[in-house]
Amino acid sequence: MVISKKYENAILYICSQLGGSLRGKKKLAKLLYYLDFDRYEFNESMRSVTGDTYVAWKMGPVPEHFKEALSDVVKKGSIEITQEKESDSLLPTEIYTAKTDPDMSVFDDDDKAMLSRIVKKYGG
């Protein structure tokens, strides 16, 4: 799958709106899920923002091309991923830090409203 500009900029937007960085791969995957599926529910639009499909994992739905999208934004230098050990019994937490501002021109008004909504409702 070719990762869309909207997908890349949605990741950047989410990180930038949450203080510049986001803690946890699971959190980022869930916010992308809410971005796409809340749009279906509230806007009755069958068009996702990211353009990704979702697969069922043990901890919930995950964008199928999530790793590829992250890899693309890291290669472009738009996001930096660091790891922080929080407990001896857990894997390190990945921290996603936006290094560039999102290009909001790729989003239409409905996209922008959904991005703002999911950050306010689920970002905390």
Q: Given the C-alpha coordinates, what overall shape results?
A: globular
**How far apart are the termini?**
30 Å
Strand content: 15-25%
Number of helices: 4
Gyration radius from CA atoms, angstroms: 14 Å
N-to-C SSE string, H for helix and E for strand: HEHEEHEEH
Write out the strand line-up for the largest beta sheet, numbering strands in chain order.
Answer: 1-5-4
Q: What are the low-pLDDT stretches, counting only 5+ consecutive residues below 50? A: none
Instruction: Tell me, rounded to a whole number, the average pLDDT.
Output: 89
State the helicity in percent bands.
Answer: 40-55%
Count of strand segments? 5
State the secondary-structure class.
Answer: alpha+beta
Largest sheet: 3 strands, antiparallel
